Amino acid sequence: MAEAVTYSGASLLRRNTALKLDSYRPSPELVNAVNLALYLRRPLLLMGEPGSGKTRLAEAVAYDLHRAEMAKHFFRWDVKSTTKAQEGIYRINLIQRLYDANVKQAGVDLNINNYISYGELARAFTEPQNGDAPNVLLIDEVDKADIDFPNDLLLELDRKEFVIPELGPAGRIEAKSNVIIFITSNREKELPPAFLRRCLYHYIEFPSREELKRIVFDRFGDSQPEEIVDKAVDTFLKVRGEAMSDSLKVASTSELLEWYSMIDYCRTLKKKKASLSTGQQQLVAQLDEWIDSGRLPFKSVLLKTYESFVQENHD
Amino acid sequence: MTNDLPFYSLFEALRKDPDNSLGLGDYFILIEALQGGFGMDRAAGKITKDRLRQLCKTLWLKPSQSPRVFEEVFEQYCLKAGKLVEGEHDFGTRAAKTAEAQKSDTNPPPPIEEGTPPARETNTAVEKIRVRINLGTPDGEHTNISRDKPVTEKRTLLFTDDFFPLSKRQVQQVWRFLPDTMSVAGRKNLDLETTVQAMAGTGYLARLFYQLHKQTINQVILLTDHQGSMIAFDPLTSILVETLQKAFKDFNHPAQNVMRYYFHNVPQDYVYENQFHTLHRSLEDLTAKYRNKRCVLLIISDAGAARGGNSNHRVKATIRALVRLERITSKIAWINPMPKERWAGTSAERIANFVRMFDTTPLQLQQAVAVLRGRTAASLQ
User: Fold this and answer.
1) Following DSSP, what letter does each residue of B146-171 receive, concatenated?
2) Is the whole-model pTM more than 0.80?
3) Which of A37, A213, A276, B252 could covalently link to A44 via disulfide, CB atoms 3.0 to 4.6 Å apart?
4) Binding-site residues on chain A for chain B (CB distance < 8 A)
5) Contact A141, A185 (CB under 8 A)
6) Percentage of chain B surpassing pLDDT 90?
7) In this structure, are residues B235 and B244 in contact, taking their beta carbons and an 8 Å threshold?
């Protein structure tokens, strides 16, 4: 195994709108887990609160390995409740083939291969990789589908091959490229043990206060004033602490960044010399109230349950 | 120092946890990872405890398991193994791999601060002391409660359900057989369809076909002891009750509405529909409601074994209650969270003579299920 490929874990510092990437900073344990998965050629199962960056990690790794070529080597399979395992592998348009056979136009090739289109997983296995760097496959929110879904993928995950029965003996297709597979789950349902056995597992912990500050600086630039960032992170942690009773409905990292973007927007509004519309004035007023008296601004971003709204109005 | 099977005893210790499903393949993958240079401090070339723990967690800890139990086992292993954990290990191809891994990438990674441990624990001022009910070390010795942090002024006792002798998965697998229909030996029904088909085939009625009568549970009644000495077993009771309810619900079974009643120490004259004892039902009410409905009755209580007392009053009152409950159904099973060894000399031992009592191990629970499904005492034990 010539496995010299590792994930450097370098943080993505600025938004890359061309590739639709946001800033991202992985923890050392997470980087280690990714490198383990790369070395051992096993899928990596990621769990964590919603908004903790599970999907972002796969994108960050794809960028790290492939840079600008990312679009050709990153495959994303978003799982829905109706998803079946076969959809990720192939789709076959038999009706079209029947129609073509009946119409019998000249120049129509009835070869069944023309009617088969590969799904994301099959594409990840068969499209050429980038030198030594493997393709990246993300199977997002695998627990949304029904309980059999992860078990249906065992052959593909284990032996890196898939089967298209309609092609007969030629239908057993092995992966030509190395693939690193990221699987994310939100814990809505329990995953079957046979599936878990084949995966490495990492739980993405919620960042510490210092890490949260660094995340804000990464995204919004180092020129943000430290006191504002401090105050923002403290307010955020306080809201989070109060809402912790139901951990699925609590604000996470992505909410912090959205909330802070409102703060940033209002600060730029204040600096503008031109006059503001009423809506903009209201927003700036919220910001000022927060700075002066600590009243929580832009509540809708951070508060997720009715109870927290009531509690907030009490304080 | 070459070690033929490095960390194998750690692997074995982890396998003892009933919640996991580790196989030999998982052990080999650890070796593979160690050969690849994981689990060690690259610069020093030595395995460090933290990195090894991280590696084992990523490889072996699955979402349904408790991280605390994992850490506990790991700490115990490190205490026993001592110097064997850290230090030089020869894994064959390790040298070649670390050389390759140190090859510089196009983007050198930012230096990760080694000195700051991830402050993931939520509250450093609080120390958790774990209360253990049943410690399952093979030699039966008591192990020290490991302390990671220095003792501070404020101590909070926290309850953890990590160390019970039963895991949720095991209980689920036992309850799984309750909703099944059971053939009642000796009773046969006429299998009309098969008979008619055979008759259509031959043209005349040659013989009758029979089917064994199948019966299924119609209603499950749970009487749970709570408060007092049963507070310690609250998580265990919860596991039993929740998995029981789910077992029927998953099949959309007629018995899905498991009726749970609460009592304290003895279900004397009344049982209660809620924990606060504001909605009462007398035993006569229960009899009237559930008689002849093909119910089964499960009682979860320590029967005095938790405190170890032997009370005539308790035994008599319990037996009187049992006699009245037997009018509802003969399929009664009593589940005692205390292990069997602790029943001797207590009220539980005496009560066990009047009702089929089982403790909370998977084997005993299976027998309880057999009783509830109608197996006779002759086929048990």
Assistant:
1) P--S---S-EEEE---TT-S--HHHH
2) no
3) A37
4) 3-4, 6, 8-11, 27-29, 32-33, 35-36, 39-40, 42, 45, 47, 64, 185, 187, 190-191, 193, 196-197, 200-203, 205, 208
5) yes
6) 10
7) no
